[in-house]
Amino acid sequence: MLHRANSIGAALLMTVTVPFFTSANAADAPVKVAKKTVDVPFFSLIDNRFTYSWQPNGTDPGVYSIRPDGSVNGKTAKQYYSFTHFDIWQYGTNFFTISYIKSDHNDPAAPCTNAGAIFDPNTGISRSANCAGATEVYGLFRSTLGWNELFNTRQFSAGPLHNISFEVGMDMGTENNYLAPAKRDVVAGLQFAFDLPYKGYLNVAPLLYWEFSNHSAFTQCGAGWQLPASAVAYPSPGANCLTDGNRRFKPTWAVEVNYYMDLGFLPESMRYFSISGRAGWYGPKGYENNPLVGTKTAIELNAEPIRLTFDASKAVWGEKYSHFVDVWVAYRYWQNKFGIDHATSNVCNIAPGVSNNSCTESSIYSGVSVKF
Q1: CA distance 218 to 214
Q2: From first to last of its 372 residues, what are the pLDDT tens digits of the chain?
Q3: How many of the other CB atoms lie within 10 Å of CB of 283?
């Protein structure tokens, strides 16, 4: 899950030029002159952070429970423990984050399914259980190479356009619930960096996105969870099940956007606040259990349109310690999570038109980030 999003992530697509200085021997010197050099650090910025955040109304597609009154509970509270690295070097930027995500009991660890029922695929019988919440590990990196830096020019800056860059990246994640996902995807494309007021920026990246592998126990031959009764007894690899359960999706388009801006218009005594945000659109990638034929995937929107950050360390210790400790609150919206169509997929609906509320995420969440 994507996971998914913190304020330093917005900085991953920003590039700056680091000048490199040299000196030459004087051609007409009568004696040998020692060459003078200036040491330039390989990295002009290194930023490492640890973040703890809590999301009370997360979701996981297909994960829900039925309350005693018969209503559907498709919400899963989640705790995030994240390490983030960001650096700027002579030709671009590197961003990496890895998160340990702990769900509550509504998203149970295997062998439970649907919050407290252990399913036996051989008999088709479920029995009650009290399982701990699932644990997910998710990592993401993005790297850019700035055209201005690569070609030693400023031709790719004009007006608010700060730079154009090549961008590549990858996502990897796994979770110990019954689905047992193991997502692997790569992205490649361009990033357009724009300046905003008050030391802000807006980055827009049109990309090629390819999720080339993602495991699903539900599609594995012999599991039989989502297959018709006849297919449980007579699995047909490649037709109604996958021998290894690994789905392989088609390449598609993506657009990733992020921004950041200090609230510099506030009075001097209140300039401890900033806003940031991000959004990612990912195109249809085939069928939801591709290469198996079935329900088509839909355009996925994964967004944190706004995050309000309070620079607590600056407020307490002064400008020198700006953004060493940040406290923030944000809003997250995620529709057609993982590309699963919330309107038509059986994963998202108990019956036609009756949603289990697990494929769209709309949640306020908050956290604390510490730089070290």
Answers
A1: 12
A2: 333 333 333 333 333 322 222 223 333 334 444 445 556 678 899 999 999 999 999 999 999 999 889 899 999 999 999 999 999 999 999 999 999 999 999 999 998 988 888 877 667 677 888 899 999 999 999 999 999 999 999 999 999 999 999 999 999 999 999 999 999 999 999 999 999 999 999 999 999 999 999 999 989 987 654 445 444 456 788 788 999 999 999 999 999 999 999 999 999 999 999 999 999 999 999 999 999 999 999 999 999 999 999 999 999 999 999 999 999 999 999 999 999 999 999 999 999 889 999 999 999 999 999 999
A3: 17
**CA gap 273, 257 in Å, rounded:** 21
Within a 13 Å sphere around the CA of 71, how many CA atoms are in the beta-carbon half? Answer: 4
For the chain, how many helices (H) and strands (E)?
3, 20
- Contact of 233 with 306, CB cutoff 8 Å: no
Domains in the chain, start-ordered, CATH in brackets? 7-17+44-371 (2.40.230.20)
DSSP 328: E
Two tokens, residue 320 = 């020198």
Structure tokens at 363: 């949640």
Residue 106: closest CA among 365, 367, 357, 368: 357
Cβ contact 301:340 at 8 Å: no
CA gap 244, 342 in Å, rounded: 26
The CA-to-CA distance between both ends of the chain, in Å, stands at: 26
CB atoms within 10 A of CB 278: 25
Are 247 and 279 within 8 A, CB to CB? Answer: no
Residues 6+ apart with CB under 8 A from 17: 146, 148, 149
CA distance 183 to 187: 13
Q: What are phi and psi of 136, to 5 degrees?
A: -125, 145
